[in-house]
Amino acid sequence: MATEQSDSGQDGRSIRRRWEPRIERLRRGWDRYTEHKIGVVGLIILIIYALWSIAPGVFAPHSPDWVAYLGEPPIKSRLTGEQIRSLPHPPAFGDPFFAPFGTNSLGNGVLTLVIYSAQNAMYIGLAAGMLSSLVGVPLGLISGFYGDTWIDEAIQRFVDIMYGLPFLPFLIVLVAIRGITTTNIIIGIAVTSWLNNCITVRGETLSLKERSYVESAKVAGASDTRIIFRHIMPNVLPISFVFLAQDAAGAVIAQASLAYLGLADFTANSWGLMLENIKSTGYVFKAWWWLIPPGIALMLMAASFYFIGFSMEDVTNPQR
Amino acid sequence: MDRAEDREPLVEIDGLQKLFDQSQGVVDTILGRDPQPVRAVDGVSLDIYQGDIVGIAGESGCGKTTLGKMLVKLHDPTEGSIRFDGEDITDMTREAEREFRKRVQMIFQDPFESLNPRMTVYDTVAEPLKINDMIESYDERRDRVTEVLEDVGLGPAEVYLDAFPDELSGGERQRVAIARALVVDPDFIVCDEPVSMLDVSIRAGVLNLMKELQSEYDLTYLFISHDLSLIRYMCDRAGIMYLGNMVEQGPTDDIIDDPKHPYTEALFDAVPDVELGEERRRANATGEVPSPRNPPSGCRYHPRCAHIIPPDDWTGSQDAFRRAYQFKLKVRRGDISPESVDSGDIETAEALVEHGLTLDVPEEYRTETEVATGGHRVDLSAVDLPTDTRRVLTEAAEAVLAGDADRAVSTLDDALTTSCAERQPEPQPSGTREVACHRYDDGGADGLDGSGAGLSAAPAED
């Protein structure tokens, strides 16, 4: 019993000893990240969005089903004609109701909708970004590592063909065939955005595999898998991180564009859908309080991803 | 130095050849071009005995690194075989290869590239142990790594274990690379220019360490370097490579004291001597290293060689033949044409011959007129050319002046031939060494009877 305990204690210590240098390295990376204020700003914006998506109820003044004049559901009465004519209502504070960004033509609070939409945008951005990294990075690694063989050739020709697909028309056809759901939109975005990932990672791998530490690993007897995942991938991941951020931003914007074109899941809240609604109801030039918040929210989310990507590039590729 | 003879060789290399770029592009296939592979290593044979330090020297691009990489199975040879401890390494089973990887290691040239920047020193050094399943427990592995790090002079090892390569100096990095090679307790280590990227001030330290480790770990080294003083310092035996061929090999001291191959001689002359007061001899070689894609026929060194062998019926001096042969090469390369001569005073064929017979070599090998004109012209009377050769040269020069380079080349091709260009010299034992040169074809430096005045006419050397 006593020996077992001391063994596990030793294990704990050895695990700590193993990870200590990596934590130290992470800390240095963080120092480098914070050197640029822009990255910190991006991170703060993203954290706010993350909090919004985790607990929108805490931040939003109402629930998304809240209607001006009538309040939270269950709603028993109806709006009077005069009340309907006053919608979309400009920002109102306390009288006749509280809606800091005003309301839309249905009487829902714009701020509430903006906050509730963050979840959808985050989901689409991260899911599409990660999906395209998950496809693009391994394919790029394999293609680069087996550079100049039929494997590489096959993957690259496939990438070339995919590049030929025009983005929006392809997405429209895909969504039209498979139905308008958020999942299908994510798949559509990922299918077209992993290409850049793949090509960049391939190029990086081609140069990394000529480094003598890769040859040194081969001399030590390392398998191809070990070389790819232990020696090349850690050196490629930082770049793919930059691409993940950019893909995420691109996905959010693409989703908004699709929603604006009417290709969106109408049961979900999203900024693109808000813009589509203001367009279809004809209030673009009349209700600025409805038009501007979703636009800015969209822009800030894309910007935060880009800012983070920008700062990550500095962390992963330091230039003194 | 012949202690090697009674032992079994650890590594036997036989007729090794490595061609790169053998595959063709689509365009080449369509146009029906033949592939022109780079002949990086072409027919090298070498035995390495247990406990020896064997040096491989040569200019950049002579194939010495490729040779080293084939010995550790980073490249597979195109032709020929490598036997390690009696076993052919070119097609081994998985098991045999595993065993081989434990016994053969390599130290690379650039310590800034040979360590993975994202692995700690511990991870880097322990990796061969992990891959080969040599030590199971983490703590034992760590102890082994500590021990090796202290052996290579990185002590106390605790300071280094968790460091990343970017925190270390060049010398420390190379010591880590050495530790990584030693951790599996190998028998044979290929060192590819191990100190060339290090500061001169710390080179000696690393070299002495490698010597110490050799006796401690009972190692055999193959030492690849372009630095001859390093080879002289480190190695028992040496091989000199030129364009993928091993031109001379034998005990280091013998090679340095009395180089037999003309290339070895030129290579040693090219090294600056630090000893004061001694008149330095410079390399007596013309031109540059040809492309390994299209190496010269016969002996690959013959277009640059100072001791090129004239044909048996040559009546002039060897120097005259060398000059005439250079003239032919210049015409073939298109270096000699009326336009290429800038001063404009060459209008007659005679003047062109005088210009073409000059040699681009250091001053001590030139004739008086050459020195006086800055290597622009040589006095024909100073060159002991047979009359009919002189006539052929003039004829060729006339053809060149008339703009018919093809005719000039064919005229010269018929008149000036040498056995050096016709067949490739086989390595011949000559004393303690093996030399691949036609001058030693029948086993000694005296095999020059046929070429008569050959050597004696070369500019005074001794």
Overview of this protein structure:
Chain B: Pfam families: ABC_tran, oligo_HPY. Chain B: Residues 420-462 are annotated as: Disordered. Chain B: InterPro entries: AAA+_ATPase (IPR003593), ABC_transp_ATP-bind (IPR050319), ABC_transporter-like_ATP-bd (IPR003439), ABC_transporter-like_CS (IPR017871), Oligopep_ABC_C (IPR013563), P-loop_NTPase (IPR027417). The complex is a heterodimer of chains A (320) and B (462). The longest helix of chain A is centred in the last third of the chain and has 37 residues, at 224-260. Chain A has helices spanning 2-33, 37-54, 56-59, 81-85, 110-145, 150-164, 167-178, 182-208, 212-219, 224-260, 271-281, 288-316. The radius of gyration of chain A is 25 Å and the shape is elongated. Chain A has a single domain (34-62, 105-316), classed as MetI-like fold (Orthogonal Bundle), CATH 1.10.3720.10. By secondary structure, chain A is mostly helical. In chain B, strands 6-7-8-3-9-10-12-11 form an eight-stranded mixed sheet, with helices on both faces. In chain B, strands 2-1-4-5 form a four-stranded antiparallel sheet, covered by helices on one side. Chain B has two domains: 2-268, P-loop containing nucleotide triphosphate hydrolases (Rossmann fold, 3-Layer(aba) Sandwich); 318-421, no CATH class. Chain B starts with 8 loop residues before the first strand and ends in a 27-residue tail after the last strand. In chain B, helix 4 packs across helix 5 (138-151), helix 7 runs parallel beside helix 8 and helix 13 (349-356) packs across helix 15 (387-401).
